[in-house]
Design brief:
Residues 321-346 form the Zinc finger FPG/IleRS-type domain. This is Isoleucyl-tRNA synthetase. With 348 residues, this protein is mainly alpha-helical. It has helices spanning 34-41, 43-52, 63-86, 103-124, 128-157, 163-183, 188-198, 214-219, 228-234, 247-272, 295-302, 341-347, and strands at 16-17, 59-60, 282-286, 306-309, 314-317, 321-322, 329-330. It has a 3-stranded mixed sheet. Helix 2 (43-52) crosses helix 3, helix 3 (63-86) packs parallel to helix 7 and helix 4 packs antiparallel against helix 5. It is globular and about 80 Å long.
């Protein structure tokens, strides 16, 4: 018979060193017991560290390094906790078609589609570090610091049947299904805990799911995602084009994100000086001429009281009163604690 190597691919890795970069040795007393790390931090922290290092070279491990890994893990976990809370009573009856969603939701679906393509490439390349860094960056920068931050007011204060809120929760459901699947190979215990928190079933598991099938999640109304058989049939299909925004939409929202960052940076000194306690108290002047969004919507996106057009960015504290329900400071609120028009209508 023809002789050949007994594998299709082989992956090698460097040595694990101590926190100072020295080779671990019993004689030096600098060895680490993985079981002790698991007892202190949990198995998923050790797994996340292993997936995060550059295994093509020697790599270090120590208490300070594990603290950094734990911080990244905690941020991921907090994002999933927010999604679990926001999707507590979500049903397929609330699902909104992509074509009927606001632009922000469609932009986030586009970013998710980009992430999905990037992660597939990392998997094919055995690039575990870039794989987890891409997930972490998306959840922290695109979701927690941007999408979730903007839409939390909509989630908590808009009417349950408001189309914008329904669209937000539809996208959040897609994010939940996709991201839980993405982290499962690395954070296997955390992913299972998250999945069972939302879909408790002894006969089900996140580890029985296939790679996200966005067509099924968005358009079939299947809340838990497709069966393995359906996924096997679809795993070679291109992602539905409706997930991807056109160039004009993407460019528009990249411009808005940059402008939002500029406003946030202008507000921060006043927060440090305690002139204002939150961005909701800020009235902003911003050069709006080249910004592809109306002032009122931009104020909502920046989570400020008001934005007016001007040649330079300036920030002052608003004189508006605070709504007792949504906490927005608006001209229509007659005194602190009274309701704004939206909240009065929702509670009527």
């Amino acid at each position: 018979p023809q002789r050949r190597v007994p594998y299709k691919a082989v992956l090698t890795h460097g040595m694990t060193l101590d926190k100072t970069g020295k080779k671990m040795s019993k004689s030096l007393g600098n060895t680490l017991n993985p079981q002790k790390i698991i007892n202190v931090h949990g198995a998923d922290i050790l797994r996340l560290w292993a997936a995060s290092v550059d295994y093509t070279d020697d790599h270090r491990i120590g208490d300070e390094i594990l603290k950094g890994v734990t911080d990244s893990y905690r941020k991921l976990r907090n994002s999933f906790r927010y999604m679990l809370g926001g999707l507590g009573d979500f049903t397929d009856d609330e699902r909104i078609a992509v074509a009927d969603m606001p632009e922000l939701e469609r932009y986030i679906l586009h970013r998710l589609a980009e992430l999905d393509s990037e992660l597939k490439q990392h998997v094919n390349d055995f690039a575990f570090g870039p794989y987890m860094r891409a997930i972490t960056a998306f959840m922290q920068e695109d979701l927690s610091a941007f999408f979730f931050d903007i839409r939390k007011d909509c989630l908590y204060c808009d009417a349950p049947d408001d189309p914008k809120r329904m669209a937000y929760r539809t996208v959040m459901d897609v994010l939940f299904h996709a991201l839980t699947r993405y982290i499962a190979p690395v954070l296997c215990f955390t992913a299972e805990e998250i999945w069972q928190s939302r879909f408790p079933d002894e006969d089900d598991s996140i580890h029985l799911k296939e790679w996200p099938d966005f067509k099924a999640l968005l358009f079939s109304g299947e809340g838990r995602g497709p069966s393995p058989e359906v996924s096997a049939q679809n795993n070679n299909q291109e992602m539905d084009s409706r997930l991807r925004g056109n160039d004009e939409l993407v460019e528009k929202w990249e411009t808005i994100r940059s402008a939002r960052i500029a406003v946030t940076e202008a507000i921060e000194p006043l927060r440090r000086e305690k002139t204002i306690r939150s961005s909701l108290e800020a009235e902003v002047v911003y050069p709006l001429a080249d910004l592809p969004v109306e002032a009122a919507e931009f104020a909502e996106l920046c989570i400020v009281a008001n934005i007016d057009d001007g040649s330079n960015i300036t920030v002052t504290k608003t004189d508006n009163h605070k709504c007792g329900r949504c906490w927005r400071l608006l001209p229509e609120v007659t005194e602190d604690g009274a309701l704004c028009g939206r909240c009065a209508k929702v509670l009527a």
